[in-house]
Amino acid sequence: MTTQTATETAFAKINLALHVRSRRADGYHLIESLFAFVDDGDRVEAAPASELSLRLTGPFAGELDGGGDNLVLRAARAMQAHFGVGKGAAILLDKRLPVAAGLGGGSADAAAAARALNRLWCLDADEAALTAAIGALGADVPACLTSRTLIGRGIGDEMAPHAGAAALTGRPVLLVNPRIACPTGPVYRQWDGVDRGPLGEDAANWRNDLEPGALALVPPIAAVLEALRGMAGAEMVRMSGSGATCFALFGDAAARDGAERAIARAHPGWWAMTGALR
Q: Per-domain residue ranges for the chain?
């Protein structure tokens, strides 16, 4: 029996650490990253239909192409091919996260679409099967299917559990973006080629090696970091991924919410989202 509609959240991904170790001959970079996911993000809804279609809504819908190259539609076609599905789906993507923002948005949307279609089409596929179906769409896709704190190595697609994941679950977090797109490729090309060491257990040594390059390309990121570091109760402040979104972890929700209000007053043009780590 076909489910009437299936709705999934495309959880925002942040990098608590992103250590770039080397650059491969093919241009890809080998990294060690601590992925974490916020309990909010875009929304994907799938309803029965004879053909595949995609409709975009939300504050950032205008920055996306809803055509055949959209990762949501590519994920849907990959699901059809992998599982031999002849049905279609009317898919709605409510785009609430900024685009090219260092939040894994496209990969998270693809993963959410796969989870929704898995339910809509009653496939009963486990996470490994979904990864086999759509994992090739992007290095972040396997992590986004899991949407839990984990370590990513290789080009980000080799996942391992993180011993401290349970302690991070539920931590209040504030995301802030200056509403400037920061495409991944140019930021990675700014990396200076220096291996500054592996990802260890000590959070004091975690870093984002892409931050200097992103700051060179999008200087307003510095103002976001400065604003977050000035907030009472901010315990970890860092740029996420290749930017331009930055985040702060807090010890309690009241401090996080106070920081969000202060950011909104001081910088009304910036985008902000509150949440907690999954």
A: 6-161, 165-276
Measured distance CA(266)–CA(180) in Å, rounded: 17
Question: Is 100 marked as a binding-site residue?
Answer: yes
Instruction: Please tell me the pTM assigned to this model.
Output: 0.95
Tokens 């959410």 identify what position?
A: 112
CATH architecture of the domain with residue range 165-276:
2-Layer Sandwich (3.30)
Residue 68 assigned ligand-binding role: no
Q: Are 89 and 34 in contact (CB under 8 A)?
A: no
> Does the structure show a pLDDT above 90 at 1?
no
48 annotated to bind ligand? no
Specify the CATH architecture of the domain 6-161: 2-Layer Sandwich (3.30)
Residue 66: per-residue pLDDT: 84
Please list the active-site residues: 13, 140
pLDDT digits (tens, 9 = 90+) for 140-161: 999 999 999 999 999 999 999 9
